[in-house]
Amino acid sequence: MPYRRLMTIIGSPLGGPGLAQERRIVTEIPGPVSREWLERRQRSVARGLSHVLPVFVTAAGGGVLVDADGNSLIDFGSGIAVTTVGNSAELVVERVSEQVAQFTHTCFMVTPYQGYVEVCEELNRVTPGDHDKRSALFNSGAEAVENAVKIARHATGRSAVVVFDHAYHGRTNLTMAMTAKNMPYKDGFGPFASDVYRVPMAYPFRWPGGPAACRENALGVVTDLIHTQVGEKNAAAVVIEPIQGEGGFVVPPDGFLPGLAAFCRDNGIVFVADEIQSGFCRTGDWFAVDHEGVVPDLVTTAKGIAGGLPLAGVTGRAEMMDAVHPGGLGGTFGGNPVACAAALGAIETMSKEDLPAAARRIGDVMLPRLRKLAEAHPEIGDVRGRGAMIAIELVRPGTVEPDAAVAAKVAKTCHAAGLVVLTCGTFGNVLRFLPPLAIPGALLDEGLSILEDAFARLTGAPGKP
Ligand code: PLZ
Q1: Which helix (H) or strand (E) holds 36?
Q2: 32-75+354-459 sits in which CATH class?
Q3: Among 43, 99, 132, 458, fewest CB within 10 Å belongs to which?
């Protein structure tokens, strides 16, 4: 296969599931080769792009990332919830290799091809609900969210969009308006798109009065605000991440999403689930809304859909999707044939290997260990998440006051030991764990031990050997 020959010629280890599944640290992190590239990067790449951990990756697969210095790091990030099936997963490599040799682009709007239709058929099949659906494909999550809003506006003839505190929907102008957090996403980039209204998120840990009050009151607070400050008949869409991603892996209490969906249904508002981070098996179901049997009108997908290739989708009720006139949706690269081939390989892998069950197994290992860690370390104020989308929120002990410094310190210790972890949250105080679902159990255990050790070092207690 030409792909494998090329990798051998340039002397890098092969990526994909065949890569040795071990943590191996042979230099400091980042090592000398990565540091050299970081200098080149600084002279050539814009400052506005930053890195969680500046090691330059040369191969990846299963649960590891291998860098240019020969270090093999455990991956608890999946490139922000993208490599759900693993890096260079077998079926993805196979389908992409075949497609890339066949043709790379025609533009679906010029002359269509089968892969695009097949991905839409798959999306219509795996997304919640057995009603008649249509899909459209795009390049990025932000573009999918923009298009969901365009479709909702056409379908309803209304313009207002309701979003939530702590929401993240992207970096384009409309999606910046929809995203909550100013720094680093919005600062100085305005003016933003209008007619976007923000309401409180049902955030049990931070709800005034705590989780019980959240369960009791959040839906009423949200629907009252939509009534008084937007007006139901002006609202085209309510857009919500069923488990918030960048905002801190916020899991609303059971009942909130079904209640919100019913409110939307009763008032002719399009209920949009942004499943870009939570979708495609990540939370132990195909989609996070499946947990409570919620059927959104529109679902946005990206990230995990195509095993690392850029692809995004909007899937929804046929009558809403088809409200847009021919030519009203599109884009040069949207639904690129190589990305579609990757998606078909990724979705087949998810079905064949029952990746929702793999995500549940990961959660079953992580949650008890993290809860135990929280008992020993009062800086951990909350442990939450579902499946392989798990987080811990760090606070000043005994309070809900965010402690971003501890989160940064623990992340740094993990990175130095060869474990890639990410932070998130409006206050930067949440450590999130998103391992590839292909991670071997031994690496998952080792990664958790590194994390436990990082907490032990915080208080100066001796770490595990
Ligand atoms: N909606 C729920 O999580 C992307 C952002 C990384 P794009 N989240 C990662 C960063 O800092 O840019 C995301 C998401 C949800 C939309 C998006 C946007 O997806 O593919 O990054 O445009």
Answers
A1: helix 32-44
A2: alpha beta
A3: 43
- State whether residue 212 is helix, strand or coil: helix
CA distance 373 to 429: 16
Quote the Cα angle for 313-3-78, to 5°. 45
Q: Is 149 close to ligand 1, i.e. is its CB under 6 Å away? A: no
- What is the rounded distance in angstroms from the CA atom of residue 205 to the CA atom of residue 212? 10
257's tokens: 């999403």
The response to whether residue 140 sits with its C-beta less than 6 Å from ligand 1 reads: yes
Are 355 and 78 within 8 A, CB to CB?
no
Is 274 close to ligand 1, i.e. is its CB under 6 Å away?
yes
How does DSSP assign 234-300, residue by residue? GEEEEEE-SS-STTT---PPTTHHHHHHHHHHHTT-EEEEE-TTTTTTTTSSSSGGGGGT---SEEE
Domain ranges of the chain: 32-75+354-459, 90-352
Provide the whole-model pTM.
0.96
**Ligand 1 mutation target, pool 137, 169, 434, most atoms within 8 A of CB:** 169
- Distance (Å, rounded) from C-alpha 147 to C-alpha 195? 16
* Measured torsion, CA atoms of residues 69, 71, 77, 83, in degrees rounded to the nearest 10: 80
Candidate of 168, 179, 275, 283 to mutate for ligand 1, largest count of ligand atoms within 8 Å of Cβ: 168
Tens digit of each residue's pLDDT (9 = 90 or more) over 205-242: 999 999 999 999 999 999 999 999 999 999 999 999 99
pLDDT above 80 for 9: no
- Residue of 246, 298, 301 to test ligand 1 pocket, by largest number of atoms within 8 Å of CB: 246
Query: Sorting pLDDT into bands at 50, 70 and 90, what band is 101?
Result: very high
Report CA(299)–ligand 1 centroid distance (Å): 15
Give yes or no for residue 276 CB within 6 A of ligand 1: yes
82 lines ligand 1 (CB under 6 A): no
Tokens of 418: 């060869």
Compute the chain's Rg from CA coordinates. 22
- CATH of segment(s) 90-352: 3.40.640.10
pLDDT (0 to 100) of residue 460:
61
